Amino acid sequence: MLGLRSFRPVLAALAGLAMAVSTASAQSLKPYKDELFAYPGILSTGDGGAYEVVDYREARDIDQRDEIPERRARGKYVSTAVRKVQKDLVLRSDAGKIRHVAVGKPENAAFITIYLHGQGGSRKQGVDDFTFGGNFNRIKNLMAGNGGLYLSPDFPDFGDKGAAQIAALIGHYAELSPSAKIFVACGSMGGGLCWLLAKNAQVAPRLSGLILLGSHWDDTFFGSAAFKRKVPVFFGQGSKDTVFPVDKQEAFYRSIRQKSPGYPTRFVRFETGSHGTPIRMTDWRETLNWMISASP
Fold first, then answer.
1. Can you give the pTM of this predicted structure?
2. pLDDT, tens digit, for every residue of 95-121?
3. Domain 42-294 superfamily per CATH
């Protein structure tokens, strides 16, 4: 018959497992309008589920979802109460003044999600509650409702100056929330900043995920600090994107998998979708929860 001393290693292991499960549960985003924002249908999958083709239909996903197509989502997709924790701010840094909108907890946040707009955009795009089918309103509510912070900044360009300002923004809020997992989402041309941040020696160690939405590829990523850390990378791309062709982005996704087998990367192809479709259709909660579980 085993004594208590013999059971101690087993009890310790069970306690450790329970703690790990509890931590994993705590480090995930609670549901928010999942029934409205979940992918409408999966046409096919590959790479063990890492690659998905989503059924996208303009008649359903724009015309039925929006009260005014592409301009105002129907009320059930949006909750504007989150504006109570939204502020338009200016951060003064060595890289210059950084105008940005912050939603949620400015300090001690559990998560920080930053959206970087594309050509012709501004900080206002990422906090517009009603465009893109209400998907920006959803990420605002997901962050605010889970003790997180959402940031949508202005920046001067998609090169070194812009990257320096976003690095300063990340550094500022990372100091205020040292335990936060940090995710950077880049729309279209904003992807250039995602790839530059991946190479930044100060920023890369803080990243928990990069999200490319209708964006482009960059082979220099393979030499970056983020690649070496295996920071999760998500690609969302419309199959009819005429700005950044889907076949080239898919090829880049596959090159990541080839160069580093097991690398945490996912690709969602929105069949018949155009350039802006991933911003409208990407499931923020599913994507971020995957990144939380896969982040280094």
1. 0.91
2. 999 999 999 999 999 999 999 999 999
3. Alpha/Beta hydrolase fold, catalytic domain (3.40.50.1820)
